[in-house]
Design a protein that fits this description.
Chain lengths: 410, 97
């Protein structure tokens, strides 16, 4: 849980920009290869890493490339040769990496990436939302969402640990600008701590000219299905691996992400009548609104999936079981249907014992501020949720400015 | 690898589907071809431009000769060799099937 009451950095903490803090965390994981292409708002991560390499503080190959496609492809080559490979990107850069990232998943290469979430063009925007991460949902990459800078650091370390055990790439998401450009206190892990938590990578196969192998080449119809099924199985197995990793993380670093096996983080959700579900940095604002409702004696709570892939379906079923209504706040949308996040939560509840009504709210797109009063309005609205709702009733865009739309107030 | 044995027959699904090298040679892609390269061995000066540019490594020097030939098991008939040949020794001829 984020420490809302903690104002000043403790002795162990340092105050630095989010991107620098993540880079320092990556440094402690001692990657063999870093390859990336600059893009706002990620740039600071790899800029700091290149500086650390140039200053001799980090013994890694920093490979400069001509595009994100090449950055991801370079990581594939490095990872196939047995290296621990890291990259970072945002938005359009993640789009350009999409093809090699699906390949990395199929080749079962545990590349870990920090993704500074930003909306996708057009229109061009450099600001935060989750449309980039959701567009990569089906590739076979593990995905986590950080609430604050500390989690953005820690999820990368957990990412390496889990990715290297289950042989899948990982995207560690943290909101662009809100977390990349904020300065807040965080514990920067040391290399000693990380080496205790993160064993050296032991790949099953490596590219080796003296013992050549073909990786990720042609598969006929009689083989492809099985190779894709193995990704699904690795994803499902990663739930257990993640649960063990957060336990050990707590022992080594003292930070506790063990709730619901590390899949969910909840805030006053146990006895809540109305539960907000959201991912990422918006959770900080939601906590304040929950506090205000609780002061008034109203049972409102929050459930925040920390992990998005594998999807925390059993955990969400449990956490939402006793709610009268559920409000999904999401910074993405799937044109032609509803929010993908909301759809997955509803899917998780479909065969569950208890099926609280779910309303989804598309907001905070492309960095639009979400204020406490916006969230309070949503809590009031979700109280009207019923088991049967038309599509127009179940999803809304509460921040929409009708005066900007074609034909005036739509 | 023997040419007659299908290397895919007993392909095991390893982590990341790692296979022995050269397995793709079993997939003979020459049947896709609409045009095939025919070389005028007198005009060929053996410069190897066709080999350099062939995307499928199907143009090779003919053993014991000073001209080039084509492996029709893999040549897809793209015609790049005919384009780059400095002596116009290669003609693309429609396949009769």
């Amino acid at each position: 849980m984020a420490q809302a009451d903690q104002q000043n950095p403790s002795d162990e903490q340092e105050v630095m920009k989010g991107t620098s803090a993540v880079a320092k965390g990556v440094m402690a994981a001692n990657p063999d290869v870093v390859s990336a292409y600059p893009i706002t708002p990620q740039t600071g991560v790899v800029e700091k890493l290149s500086e650390l390499v140039a200053d001799g503080k980090l013994d890694s190959e920093f490979i400069k490339v001509d595009s994100e496609f090449n950055a991801a492809s370079t990581c594939i080559g490095a990872s196939a040769a047995g290296a621990r490979a890291f990259s970072a990107t945002s938005s359009q850069g993640l789009k350009l990496m999409s093809e090699p990232l699906f390949t990395a998943a199929g080749m079962r290469l545990p590349i870990v990436m920090a993704v500074a979430n930003r909306s996708l063009s057009a229109p061009l925007s450099i600001w935060a939302d989750h449309t980039d991460a959701f567009a990569e949902r089906d590739g076979g990459m593990l995905q986590f969402h950080a609430e604050d800078v500390q989690e953005a650091i820690d999820h990368v370390l957990l990412g390496f640990r889990v990715a290297e055990q289950v042989n899948l790439p990982a995207l560690s998401n943290f909101d662009g600008f809100i977390l990349t450009h904020v300065q807040e206190p965080a514990n920067i892990p040391t290399e000693e701590e990380v080496s205790e938590f993160l064993p050296p990578r032991e790949p099953e196969y490596t590219l080796d000219p003296s013992d050549p192998k073909t990786m990720g080449a042609y598969a006929r119809p009689e083989h492809w299905t099985e190779s894709r099924y193995e990704i699904q199985r690795a994803m499902m197995e990663s739930r257990e691996v993640w649960a063990d990793a957060v336990e050990e993380f707590k022992d080594v670093f003292g930070r506790d992400y063990t709730e619901y096996g590390g899949m969910l983080d909840t805030y006053y959700a146990d006895d809540a009548d109305h539960i907000i579900v959201a991912m990422g940095s918006i959770a900080g604002t939601i906590r304040n609104v929950v506090d205000a409702y609780r002061e008034d004696g109203e049972k409102v709570g929050m459930v925040r999936p920390r992990v998005f892939r594998p999807f925390p379906a059993p955990e969400l079923r449990d956490a939402l079981a006793d709610a009268e209504s559920v409000a999904v706040l999401t910074k993405e949308m799937s044109p032609g249907y509803e929010s993908a996040f909301a759809g997955e939560i509803k899917g998780a509840l479909y065969h569950a014992e208890s099926q609280p009504p779910v309303k989804s709210y598309v907001l905070g797109m492309a960095g639009r501020d979400v204020k406490p009063e916006d969230i309070a309005d949503i809590i009031e609205d979700v109280k009207t949720a019923t088991p049967k709702m038309d599509f127009d009733e179940s999803e809304s865009w509460p921040q929409l400015r009708p005066e900007l739309l074609k034909g005036g107030d739509a | 690898m023997s040419d007659t044995q299908d290397p895919y027959e007993n392909l095991k699904i390893t982590t990341g589907v790692v296979a022995e090298p050269n397995t793709s040679r079993a997939n003979k892609t020459g049947s896709w071809r609409e045009f095939k390269p025919v070389i005028d061995t007198d005009a060929c000066i053996g410069c190897g431009q066709c080999d350099t540019y062939c995307p499928d490594q199907a143009a090779k020097p003919v053993e014991g000769e000073d001209f080039y030939g084509f492996d029709l098991d893999y040549c897809k008939g793209c015609g790049i060799c005919a384009e780059v040949c400095p002596t116009d020794a290669i003609e693309m001829v429609r396949e009769v099937k």
